[in-house]
Amino acid sequence: MIIMGIESSCDETSVSIVEDSRKILSNIIFSQIDIHKIYGGVVPEIASREHIKAINYVAKQALEEAGKTFNDIELIAVTKGPGLVGALLVGMSFAKGVSAALDIPIIGVNHMEGHICANYLQYKELEPPFISLVVSGGHSYLVDVKSYTDYHVIGRTRDDAAGESFDKVSRALGLGYPGGPAIQKASEKGNSEAIDFPRVMLEKDSYDFSFSGLKTAVLNYLNKEKMAGREINPFDVAASFQASVNDVLVSKSVRLAKEKQRDKFVLSGGVAANRDLRNRLTEELNELGIKVYYPEMSLCTDNAAMIASAGYYNYVKYGADTLKVNVIPNLGLEKE
Ligand code: KG4
Ligand code: ZN
């Protein structure tokens, strides 16, 4: 089955052609990062307008690179949420237009499910069940992935997402947007033990996350040092902050992997690009005999190939949507 994936939930316009669930024929990603950078974060109205300008060209290029035409497409998989409503609507309207005009089945896809499925594109042998840590700019989940379409959410963030905390701390340090790569780079020159930021674990048995206290602790530290007239070492702050986030993510992931006794662990979402997080999870879980998977950089952050893959599995299980399918900006990961 030849699938066209369409992704426009945030600041990447992406169209991909994928064969079945695992073979990428093309994956075109037009990033708006340079446009939003000057504002220090994504401006929703600008994101929607940029998606409108880009989507036709991105789709055309995806078809060309795959050596296909619209007539070859057998399923359109489009992100329906979670994400920015105006941005989501651009991809959804485009998908509906193509579906209606050419009579191609359409399916709305959960963006976070897509992040997990990014791993299937890279690891042809990977099959559920496994535990997944899904960490992006807007969401953080610890999930028991029971099958290709059955997700049991065990932990979630109660306030800021992991990626959001990277973005906010980066902004406070003047390191720019997006924060994750900037903090990672700065951390390499810093001492992760220089400042003792809190590790918020919540209740003893909880798998939930809370990162807003850590962000406040970093802001308070920066203010206090400035008031005292002391010079701030941004590299030490970045490294100590990153160590705090990753300590929490790794310790909860390892505890859950042990409890559920799954032999596979899958890291996904934009924060899965973090080298320290990848290395530490791999080291600690391998010691327990658990195999760790994470996508290559271009499949960690937003892309339409992962949406096509998730679309395939949902289509096989549930069939297509009708043209009444719509965007759901606050869509959760667990199916009702
Ligand atoms: O999945 P994604 O591309 O978009 C959303 O669905 O939100 O994730 C973007 C997030 C941003 O918060 C960005 O700062 C973070 O992923 N990120 C990273 C790294 N690269 C991207 N966080 C930590 N370390 C990185 N290397
Ligand atoms: Zn994402």
From TrEMBL:
Cofactor notes: Binds 1 Fe(2+) ion per subunit.
Cofactor(s) it depends on: Fe(2+)
InterPro entries with a match to the protein in the record: ATPase_NBD, Gcp-like_dom, KAE1/TsaD, Peptidase_M22_CS, TsaD
Residue ranges of every copy of the Gcp-like domain listed in the record: 23-308
UniProt-annotated binding residues for substrate: 134-138, 167, 180, 274
One GO process term, biological-process aspect: tRNA threonylcarbamoyladenosine modification
Assigned keywords, A-Z: Acyltransferase, Cytoplasm, Hydrolase, Iron, Metal-binding, Protease, Transferase, tRNA processing
EC number: 2.3.1.234
One Gene Ontology MF term: peptidase activity
Localisation: Cytoplasm
Catalytic activity line of the entry: L-threonylcarbamoyladenylate + adenosine(37) in tRNA = N(6)-L-threonylcarbamoyladenosine(37) in tRNA + AMP + H(+)
Highest taxon, organism lineage: Bacteria
GO cellular component: cytoplasm
Binding site for Fe cation: 111, 115, 302
Enzyme class: transferase
DNA damage among keywords: no
Residue intervals passing through the bilayer: none
PANTHER family recorded: TRNA N6-ADENOSINE THREONYLCARBAMOYLTRANSFERASE, TRNA N6-ADENOSINE THREONYLCARBAMOYLTRANSFERASE, MITOCHONDRIAL
Function: Required for the formation of a threonylcarbamoyl group on adenosine at position 37 (t(6)A37) in tRNAs that read codons beginning with adenine. Is involved in the transfer of the threonylcarbamoyl moiety of threonylcarbamoyl-AMP (TC-AMP) to the N6 group of A37, together with TsaE and TsaB. TsaD likely plays a direct catalytic role in this reaction.
NCBIfam families linked: gcp_kae1, T6A_TsaD_YgjD
Name of this protein: tRNA N6-adenosine threonylcarbamoyltransferase
